[in-house]
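Researcher: I'm preparing a figure for a lab meeting and need a structural model of a single chain. I don't have an experimental structure, so a prediction will have to do for now. The sequence is pasted below. Please return the structure as tokens so I can convert it later.
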Amino acid sequence: MSEFIHRIHSESGSLLAYVIRSDFSADITSFVTPPEHNFQVGFVVYPKDGEIQSHYHRKINRKISNTSEVLVVRKGHCEIDIYDDEQRLAETLEMKTGDVMVMVSGGHGFRMIENTVFLEIKQGPYIGIDEKKRF
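Model: Understood. Here is the structure written out token by token.
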């Protein structure tokens, strides 16, 4: 899309994460993730006085084998390490207020450079700490 959306890949080329910088802006509706991903993240753009017709989402049984996660830095500054599925470091980068990370696969870890607040969005239900493997 632009230099404001950074894709992180493993050495083998598989997509691990997207980082969307706070200064990214969309003029038209644009999804960062492709339709086949199990988590859809995008920017939906409407003109002034536009409307979204009232609706609900039908119940659809989906089979999801991994947990995708979106983290929005609401306040602060941190470093993020992105790892591949074999727990090898793929990339380290800084995230600041307004940046968004979309984790597709692999692992991640953070170091806070200053007091930091994340908005975390992921699939549920959360089954407890056993769904995480720490390394």
